[in-house]
Amino acid sequence: MLFNSYEFWVFFGIVLVIYHRLSHRGQNLLLLIASNIFYGWWDWRFLILLMFSTVLDYASGLWIEKSTTQKRKKAALVLSVIANLAFLGFFKYYGFFVQEMMGVLGSLGISASLPVLNVILPVGISFYTFNSMSYVIDVYRGVIKAEHNLLTYSVYVCYFPHMVAGPIQRATCLMPQVAKSRTVTGDDFVEGLYHIVVGLFKKLVIADNMATIANAVFLVDASTLTGGEILVGIYAFAFQIYGDFSGYSSIAQGISKWLGIELTTNFRMPYLATSPSDFWRRWHISLSTWLRDYLYVSLGGNRFGKWKTYRNLMLTMFLGGLWHGAGWTFIAWGTFHGLILCFYRPFERSRWLRPSRIGNLFAVLLMFHLVCFSWLLFRAESISQVWRLLSRMATNCSMTPYAWHCLAATCFFCGPFLLFEWWLDRKDDLLLLTRVHWLPRALVYSYCMLMMLFFCAEVPHEFIYFQF
Fold first, then answer.
1. If DSSP states are collapsed to H, E and C, what string results for 30-75?
2. What is the CA radius of gyration of the chain?
3. 3-state secondary structure of 129
4. d(CA 147, CA 28)
5. Catalytic annotation present for 324
6. What is the 3-state secondary structure (H, E, C) of 287-311?
């Protein structure tokens, strides 16, 4: 069930009508039922895995709270973490590691036949696994108390607006909202509508149209392309993945706002970043802060000198890349981001990054193209395809009429929205449009609706992050 489908909006409309006529406990029961229907829409069999993970981490939190010794608390934490990572590892990485192991053994002249399973990846397993793990870790650290109400905890884990593609929620943020009574005000409706309209525009107009251009590059033989066509294809994918993922997060925020629950902001104009650390403060914020708080800090952060700080940055981004998928391209993507984080780090506090408006523009453009190179690694099917595309760009840089046409289409679909984001960034207010006079707000909404009506892509695409 997709946010950009009629089925979802019929489903959500029914839920919303019933929801606001129930008591607090009734609302939570409805959210739990609706979340299971929403998740089971893809494959009901994975509800068993979700329920098992939920009960395991709920029990682990209580075990930690009731334990009288540090040893028992740590045992409960280790059990929970190992179980969650085992589920994630089996479904997401088993096939990759088996294939790589057979390849290594074959290169050594050793004939090996390891069992290869066609494992279906449960939708959103990376997201709800990180939700559960953060809860158990926070209980162990004493950041929060264990939740005794199984209904409240279950809604926290499988709350359908953010369940399958984020934003990743911390128990400290979402659990108290689930546990207390909720009301929806007129301001909540206005803000929710803003998030939904902008999110649908990002997905239907930007992401799906850019997907057509990006697929024309990444799904064909590189020898048939020119360097200009490849470059435009990379630009297109940069805006596709941004519109796709941030669009999902925005819609999730909007529908959740109409349910009286606040989700964390996941994107903040990332292509206006001036440095790698600035980019990760703007892109997939819920994941970057999760990796920072539960991995980077646990490794020692920046507390033990320069070289260990670089090591921790590289390990964090390496594992961040691996989180996205089982493939060498994702590992290369994470490693590249680790390298540029390390390279920029000595200059983070220098004035050279933002010495003037011209200097700031240069820093933004440089960072955008570094990110675009990383998207080449992220989108390519293999490292060999990356090499072929880069080689083609180096040997044939011409811009064909088709490349110019695609570049014009990219500017047409993405240009006005980039100007809108630049305005929001200048004002440092993501919700500024909801507080201006109704006329400019109505004009922006009308533009979005007309673009969705007349320039919606012919072929709808599934949200990219469902595969993670």
1. HHHHHHHHHHHCCCCCHHHHHHHHHHHHHHHHHHHHHCCCHHHHHH
2. 23
3. helix
4. 15
5. yes
6. HHHHHHHHHHHHHCCCCCCHHHHHH
44 phi/psi in degrees, rounded to 5: -65, -25
Residue range 86-104, pLDDT digits in tens = 888 777 776 666 665 656 5
Cβ proximity of 175 and 149 under 8 Å: no
Are 324 and 330 contacting, i.e. CB atoms less than 8 angstroms apart? yes
Sign of CA dihedral 125, 127, 128, 132: positive
From the list 162, 195, 284, 324, the catalytic residue is 324
pTM of the model: 0.90
Q: Longest C-alpha distance within the chain, in Å?
A: 72
pLDDT of residue 99: 65
